[in-house]
Amino acid sequence: MPKRRLGVVLLIPPPWSHEIDGLRRAFGDGSLGRIPAHITLVPPVNVREDAVADALSVLRRAAAATRPFGVDLGPPATFLPVNPVAYLAVDGDGADEVHRLRDAVFRGPFERDLTWPFVPHATLADEADPDRIRAALGALRDYEVRVTFDRVHVLEQGDSRMWRAIADAPFSALAVIGRGGLELELATSANLDTDASRWTDTAWAADAMAEYGTVEDDAPFAIATRRNGVVVGTAAGTTRSDGAYLATLIVDAAERGTGVGSHLLAAVESLAAERGCTRVTLRTQAGGAARPFYEARGWKVYAELPAWRHGRDFVQMERLLI
Fold it and tell me: Of the four, 9, 181, 190, 195, which is 20 to 30 A from 285 by CA?
């Protein structure tokens, strides 16, 4: 049975995550870019594929018994001389909540042997030069931030040792409806977890087969353009046999008007045509600057979307490729 490399963490939200990543960059943290700023509750553990659903149930139950809480992070500390790690200590009235939550998730599929006792912290640098750590502790001795957490995440290690969030559970009681009959549990999260995502894919495929007699997945695409090795614009979307959808196209503000956007759009249209699409569609603000850009390049409005997002009117546009 295959296993998956998982970990349970409190992801530090922005803007504090950006600030802490700046400290990690200054320390030369080798994991910057591979794992987001976080407080570890369960360090990396190998979970059998058939036990992942049970592990996520543990996560949801622990989160349902927790409410949002804040902790103080800092000042920087170290595990020297035992371990060359610099970190932000977890302090304040929320430290007890971190311990309680950790105890609630450190069970079942997530339970594992530990090398060190649990000390809640946000790592700034691992395997760092001891002299550099000591110097930084003095320079940053006044650094402290107050961070509020409203959910817990499961991360999975993938290719190139990159860690990504595969599930989250908010700190709120699970909603249960249909009491006295067939009860339903409603769990809200930022993303579907593994079993819910797998069920959704299967259900959509079955529905498409029953409705259309075929199953066709959207084929994603992403195009990046660089000048002197620096990204100055990107475009992304999906294609299928009956058309392509341009989800995003953005150009660096300093590069607008230089032709970058036109080249990106032409590349999207060319890719769509190569994949057999006869039209490309997109949504943009009805009165925004992007609409005339597309219209000047042959795109037409075919539907209006009043107050579609943030109270603003949008339009759907298309470019026929035949």
Answer: 190
Contact 245, 238 (CB under 8 A): yes
Q: Closest by alpha carbon to 12, among 147, 168, 190?
A: 147
- By C-alpha distance, which of 147, 162, 134 is closest to 36? 162
Indicate if the pLDDT at residue 237 is higher than 90: yes
pTM recorded for the entire structure? 0.71
- Cα–Cα distance, 220 to 237 (Å, whole number): 6
Mean pLDDT calculated for residue range 262-271 = 95
CA-wise closest residue to 269 among 259, 278, 257: 278
Q: How do beta strands 69-78 and 86-91 pair?
A: antiparallel
Domain holding 134, by residue range, is 3-170
In a domain? residue 67: yes
Describe the strand order of the beta sheet including 219-227 as a list of residue ranges: 219-227, 230-240, 243-251, 279-285, 312-320, 300-309
Examine the domain organization and report whether 65 and 128 are in the same domain: yes
316 and 258: one domain? yes
Q: What is the pLDDT of residue 16?
A: 95
Domain count, the chain: 2
126-168 tens-digit pLDDT: 988 899 999 989 999 999 999 999 999 999 998 878 999 999 9
